[in-house]
Amino acid sequence: MVLQLLTLLGALGMFLYGMNMMSSGLQKASGNKLRSFLSSMTSSPARGVLTGLGITAVIQSSSATTVMVVGFVNAGLLTLMQAVGVIMGANIGTTMTAWIISIFGLKMDISVLAIPLMALGFVLSTSKKDKHRNIAEFIIGFSLLFIGLSFMKNAVPDLKSTPEVLAFIQSWTNFGFGSVLLFTLLGTVLTLILQSSSATMALTLVMLSMGWIPFSMAAAMVLGENIGTTITANIAASMANPAAKRAALTHTVFNLFGVVWALAFFGPFTRLIGVIIQAMGLPNPSDPTFEVLSAQGAEATSALYGLSMFHTIFNSINTLILIWFIPQMVKLVTRIVKEPAKKEDEIYKIKFISAGHGSNAEIAIEQALKETEHFASISKRGLDYVLSAIKTASGSEFETYRQKLVKYEEIADRIEREIADYLSDLPVSDVSAETSGRMRSLYKIVGELESLGDSGESIGRIISRKNSHQKDFSERQLNNMELLVAEVSRAYDVMIDNLHAYSTAGMTVNLEAALNAESRVNEVRNQLREEEMYNIEHKTDYLTSVYYLDVVSELEKMGDFIINVSQALV
pTM for this one? Predict the structure, then answer.
């Protein structure tokens, strides 16, 4: 008995590992296409539902889709209204797992095909093409999933040889509606532990097909699984911004509402499923006299199809009801999850990557991209203080601006470190080749943005030295530096636009505009330098000119860092 239990746990682990591997392989194979599809196909609630359904049916994980959605909301790529539709569709899409297991996994020994498929997966894994290796990961994961399911089925004891186990379980089914609540709780707890409603569903289908539990109790467990599966998204959003927390809470509200009405009409609902299955020419699984006699018989088929049908119709009805109330759901979760009080330095902090990676490395890159775009916007604010420091002669007012530049340099250091640490925590094996390239670009970009903060502080130090020698810039020099700052500011705007385009599906980076902006900065720098050299020859104060040219040089250097960012994007 102990060996059987350990075998069951090992088989369950193999099933989970295979599912995660299969989902990861598909996501890496699709790479940016899957993310672009999700962000572009959510213009209406109906399209959002179809998108969520389609993606979940393909990657076979509603948790992965929901975490992906939470990540998109956290990164500002999806609105909460768009996210709700996708979450609803994901709940319908996840019912495909039950149908696949019912039709192929338990009725026939698909593990016989799984071994040859693993051989195919191995051959593809030796390919030099990343896409082939990702497809190999999907095939091997698919094979492991069904081998694990086969072991699970074989590990469940035959109740004829262990009648005491049957008596123990049957004692849980003798409390009327209390038993329904008990098995709903059991489904919730199992899903919380396994972190996968698909694994719990597979376990429920195995127990049902082997006659361990009656159809009604299996249906109650399915309801519990719909509650337990919401925990994954809530974990992913626990440290996210309010919008992501609201998306995760919407998933919980959606599933809880469905479970409440399904429990309220539990008897009629299960009888309706029984009628549908009976119309298909199979025994009625909701009949009180129904009993699974064999894991391979018509009764087992009826029970498996019945539970899959219950799961599908439950989520479909729930979606058809609540799709009309998406605005009200959004208002409810917005009222529950409030925006935190804004602090004075709120704009200087990271805002997109605080959620952690969740379970999707591809979405983590999206969050890092949005955070980098935010970093660039913060960096541009520092340029305003550069101009203020240049135009302020001396005294306490200048010191205020100099301290601001020191602060921005520290902010740049901190944000660069946080983004780089976030990226370095990502396992390289969990990302596609395209995403790996994006990671390398981001490392370079955040380094360039940090260097912009260094330049701002350097300009503050130059002006401070000028003041210590009691020198003042002339009006001509001040106007020239203001002109160069304006050109750097325009280059900043082009860089930020390119960062936004890089992180947005369907937009392209305008490298030509960036090169033109950088060329204009160089052109103005050259003009100012030649002009100052001429003025030095005509008795302009030499030390003042040195400080002036140092500032001009540092501003031109900022233009170099800015163009480096746009070039890193392509």
Answer: 0.66
